[in-house]
Amino acid sequence: MKVYPFKIPKPNNNALIYQEDIEVVFYDKLHQHDEIQISYIEKGNGTLLVGNSFTNYYTGNVFVIGSNVPHAFKSDTTKNETSKMLTLFFTKESFGTSFFKLEEFEEIESFFVNSLHGFQVTSQLTEIKEIFNKLKKATKLERFIILIALLKLLSESDINLLSNYTYGKKLSDSEGKRMRKVFDYTLKNADQKISLDEIASVANMTKNAFCKFFKKRTNKTYINYLTELRIENACKILKSNKDMAIVDVAFKAGFYNISNFNRRFKELKKMTPLTFRNL
Question: Given this model, what pLDDT does residue 1 score?
Answer without folding.
Answer: 35
